[in-house]
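subagent[fold] <- orchestrator: predict structure for attached chain, return tokens only, no commentary.
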Amino acid sequence: MSKKSRTADTPDFEKSLTELEQIVERLELGDLSLDESLKQFERGIALTRSCQSSLQQAEQKVEILLRNSDTNSKLETMPFSADDDDA
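subagent[fold] -> orchestrator:
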């Protein structure tokens, strides 16, 4: 399977996250039937797993980039803080 076809088959992270947020809102309202709530919950679990997988892949790519950019091939991880943003 080529990267291009894999990307086309993989849901977009932002779209998945937005859909997950909408599902949470609908479930929190409590207006759904039990059957529909279960369907939405199941969809939410699938979206959560998809988002987690996307985040893990992104983390691995960042670690590879950090490893390749270090002259000693020594990987150092640092916690991310939005306060560190230069913008």
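orchestrator: received. Logging for downstream: The domain at 11-68 is CATH 1.10.287.1040 (Helix Hairpins). The chain is about 70% helix and 0% strand.
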